[in-house]
Automatic annotation (TrEMBL):
Gene Ontology terms, MF aspect: phosphatidylinositol-3,5-bisphosphate 3-phosphatase activity; phosphatidylinositol-3-phosphate phosphatase activity; zinc ion binding
Main location: membrane
Protein name as annotated: phosphatidylinositol-3,5-bisphosphate 3-phosphatase
InterPro entries recorded: Myotubularin, Myotubularin-like_Pase_dom, PH-GRAM_MTMR6-9, PH-like_dom_sf, Prot-tyrosine_phosphatase-like, Tyr_Pase_AS, Tyr_Pase_cat, Znf_FYVE
Active site per database record: C354 (phosphocysteine intermediate)
Entry binding sites for substrate: N291, I292, C354, S355, D356, G357, W358, D359, R360
Ranges of residues in domain FYVE-type: 706-757
Compositional bias ranges of the Low complexity kind: 573-586
SMART domains to which the protein is assigned, alphabetical: FYVE, PTPc_motif
Assigned GO CC terms: cytoplasm; membrane
Region ranges (Disordered): 568-596
Entry EC number(s): 3.1.3.95
Subcellular location: Membrane
Species of provenance: Rotaria sordida
């Protein structure tokens, strides 16, 4: 790093620290100095800094600014006071994204104040959640990409002759935790639907959630209110209608995802499961997945295992086994694989339910759909899967994640985390089949708890409509879209068989892995020194950068060749006299053909004879002067036309000198937009200097330029202009580099971004990019309009 860049970075750091201190001084509820942050695996390692408590965050900053720890209040799961030590009063803060931070505060009174304030700052209602206060960066707009449930069902070919759309729940009268529009068999009647709704727990009647290309379907519902002998004819008729939608089989499965003993126990409370004697042509099967309380306790044991200090191998493995966490993950995957096999191989319809149909049912339906449909393994498709199975059909995110203090702690459970981990386990078995990477799954889990975005607030679609989250908050999916390259899997291969076919894995105990990057992501000592996914992503980005830059260079070379060839045909050659001392007034008298043939020594001016240079040196000098003069002449910008010129019929191709300018040539690889892209020497220099050919390796630097320590869990970025490594806070993403053929935005460090923006040629380049985008949009709109007119004309005929 050169001295100028280093000084710029120092100025940036000091400016940021001053702004941060001013912000904290004005917004902090509490400020405690000389706080010791201790490494939980090495008590001898610690950092002393200042602790700030604001209305939204708990922030720890060391004096040198090398480390900043920001903890969002909504992510805090517990705050515990530990026994006093010689250094002060320890306070342990645990978060829902598995950070465990131990702060030692010198004064006991400050520790008590901090403990009390942290407990008071937890939101006690939806209106106080962070998403309604959050101010996003400038690149993130408060725009929600409208998810229409009908669009996803249309992609599956619904409605059709067997399935129809039903609007009987448009006012949430039938079921307040279902979406307004539901899909049911064509043969059903409203009386049948309302009757079944009254017979099912929480009114969650059987509805379509996935339709396979072979005609087999997955439907979901809740347990029946059957008790020991109750029955409902409307519910029985509805299941028969579902059975008739599949021409390939005369039987269907009912999958109860509870252990049998739990389902039998629910019969005593007037609930239970379907009586096989009342439902004809039904195959009933239990796929035992434990309830929310056992899952919550299992996660707690897993986290206790993760916090063990210096355990032996036997202690660690026994504790991991006693948590039963991986056994529960295997149970969820086994149930989903059974459903996928029934759909793909046996071609039978499957009805899935648990108790209320919003926890284990959501896990099994979404995972089986992921196995069956390659579309759901893309980033966009996975978003649709979450929207459909978890959000639209009412998974209780606020209760399960404990978003507010009013949430019952007994209702909290890691149901969504188990789904996320199950997807991660599948991605380890099929590394080329998923477009998204591990970071995408971790981010999805974290933001389901953080309440930074409005997508996961509330317990159902009706709650989110009542809160007007789309009008008042930012969308998590918009954040993903703006940073999509950070979440792409570099190993994803759309052409591979795994990426385009049904996945039916065989899950053995040896198949499953402990997810180190999820549960130990903040423990850098336990993580691998180099992350393979990050390294591959860096190679992909570097290759993309060089390929894009090479395309632009090839374009410029073709343009220059075309210009020189055309200019050679336009400039008349000067006939040389037999005299060796012909006086020339400019380098335009030199014939290019003579230069190429080596005959230029016949034309030597008196000034060149007096220069004292040798003939070879004069030859080289005159070649350079000739090319430079022609380049300056050809690459100079055209005069700007006034509005009157345009109205008079003169376009940008008009040349007052009678010569055909650059824009009049349309090369085979150029579009109509490219023909107006007239490069100047300054522009070409800007293009050449805006792309770094060599990138610094990820494992070389230990710290970012802002002094933030690097570890394998962090996303590191190479600046596409200088090639150095930076952390996320030192990178700007919306910079259009002139050296890229695609004119796409690229990650650039803030120092390089200021340097590019201050260049006089960058303003012209930015205007050109904007004009290209505007013209592209205009052309696309015109094409769509013309297509619609043609379609309308054909329909009229």
């Amino acid at each position: 790093m050169n001295r100028h860049l280093f000084s710029e970075v120092l100025k940036q750091i000091s400016s940021k620290l001053d702004q941060l201190k001013a912000f904290l001084s004005s917004t902090a509820h509490l400020k405690v100095e000389n706080v010791r942050l201790t490494d939980r695996f090495n008590s001898r390692q610690h950092i002393i800094g200042t602790l700030y408590l604001t209305s939204t965050h708990l922030i720890f900053i060391d004096p040198e600014g090398k480390r900043e720890t920001w903890i969002l209040h909504s992510l805090i799961s517990s705050v515990d006071k530990l026994p006093t030590t010689q250094h002060g009063c320890p306070l342990r803060v645990r978060t829902k994204h598995f950070l465990s931070a131990e702060f030692t505060i010198p004064k006991e009174r400050d520790c008590a104040d901090l403990y009390a304030t942290l407990n008071q700052l937890k939101p006690d209602s939806y209106e106080k959640l962070y998403c309604f206060l959050y101010q996003a960066p400038n690149y993130l707009e408060k725009i929600w990409d409208p998810f229409l449930l009908t669009t996803e069902y249309m992609r599956m070919g619904v409605p059709n002759v067997d399935w129809k759309i039903e609007d009987g729940n448009s006012n949430f009268d039938m079921c307040d935790t279902y979406p307004p529009l539901i899909y049911v068999p064509t043969l059903t009647t409203k009386a049948m639907l309302f009757g079944s709704s009254k017979f099912r727990s929480r009114g969650r009647l059987p509805v379509l959630t996935y339709l396979h290309p072979n005609g087999a379907s997955i439907t979901r519902c809740s347990q029946p209110l059957s008790g020991f002998s109750a029955r409902c004819q409307e519910d029985e008729q509805l299941l028969q209608c579902i059975l008739k939608t599949n021409p390939h089989s005369n039987t269907m499965y009912i999958i109860d995802t509870r252990p049998r003993i739990n389902a039998v126990a629910n019969r005593a409370a007037g609930k239970g499961y379907e009586n096989e004697g009342y439902y004809s042509n039904i195959q009933f099967k239990f796929c035992p997945i434990e309830n929310i309380h056992i899952m919550r306790n299992s996660l707690q044991k897993l986290l206790e295992t993760c916090e063990m200090k210096n355990p032996t191998m036997n202690q660690y493995l026994n504790a991991l086994d006693n948590s039963s966490w991986l056994q529960h993950i295997k149970s969820v995957l086994d149930a989903a694989i059974f459903i996928a096999r029934a759909i793909e191989i046996e071609k039978k319809n499957v009805l899935v339910h648990c108790s209320d149909g919003w926890d284990r049912t959501a896990q099994c339906c979404s995972l089986s759909s992921l196995l069956l449909c390659p579309y759901y393994r893309s980033i966009h498709g996975f978003r649709m899967l979450i929207e459909k199975e978890w959000l639209s059909f009412g998974h209780k995110f606020s209760d399960r994640c404990g978003h507010t203090t009013t949430s019952d702690s007994k209702e909290q459970s890691p149901i969504f985390l188990q789904f996320i981990e199950s997807v991660w386990q599948l991605s380890q078995i099929y590394p080329t089949a998923f477009e998204f990477n591990e970071r995408f799954l971790i981010s999805l889990h974290d933001h389901s708890h953080s309440c930074q975005y409005g997508d996961f607030v509330g317990n159902c679609e009706k709650d989110r409509l009542d809160l007007c989250v789309k009008e008042r908050t930012y969308s998590f999916w918009n954040y993903i879209l703006q940073n999509v390259n950070d979440f792409k899997n570099p190993l994803f291969c759309p052409q591979s068989s795994y990426a385009s076919e049904v996945l039916l894995p065989v899950i053995n105990p040896q198949t499953l892995k402990f997810w180190l990057s999820m549960y130990h992501r903040f423990d850098s000592a336990l993580l691998p020194k180099e992350n393979i996914s990050n390294t591959l992503t860096r190679l992909v980005d570097h290759t993309l950068s060089l390929s894009d830059h090479a395309r632009l260079l090839e374009k410029r070379i073709r343009e220059l060749h075309s210009i020189f060839d055309n200019d050679r045909t336009k400039i008349p050659t000067t006939t040389s006299s037999s005299t060796t001392t012909t006086t020339t007034t400019s380098n335009e008298d030199v014939d290019d053909s003579d230069i190429e043939k080596g005959n230029h020594h016949k034309k030597i001016s008196l000034s060149e004879l007096d220069s004292g240079l040798s003939e070879a040196e004069l030859c080289q000098t005159r070649i350079i002067d000739s090319i430079s003069l022609k380049s300056n002449t050809i690459l100079q910008p055209l005069p700007t036309l006034s509005s009157s010129d345009v109205e008079s019929g003169f376009s940008g191709d008009y040349s007052p000198h009678g010569k055909t300018p650059l824009s009049s040539f349309t090369l085979p690889h150029q579009s109509s937009i490219d023909t107006n892209d007239i490069p100047t020497i300054e522009r070409i220099a800007l293009e050449l200097n805006s792309i770094a050919l060599d990138w610094r390796s990820y494992h070389t630097p230990v710290h970012c330029a802002c002094s933030l320590p690097f570890d394998s869990a962090q996303r590191k970025y190479n600046c596409w202009k200088c090639g150095e490594n930076f952390c996320a806070r030192c990178i700007e993403r919306g910079i259009h580099l002139p050296g890229l053929y695609s004119n796409s935005s690229a990650p650039v460090c803030k120092t390089c971004a200021r340097s590019i923006k201050s260049s006089p040629s960058f303003a012209d380049f930015s205007a050109l990019v904007k004009s290209k985008s505007t013209e592209f949009i205009r052309n696309q709109t015109a094409m769509k309009l013309s297509r619609s007119m043609i379609d309308q004309f054909n329909d009229d005929r």
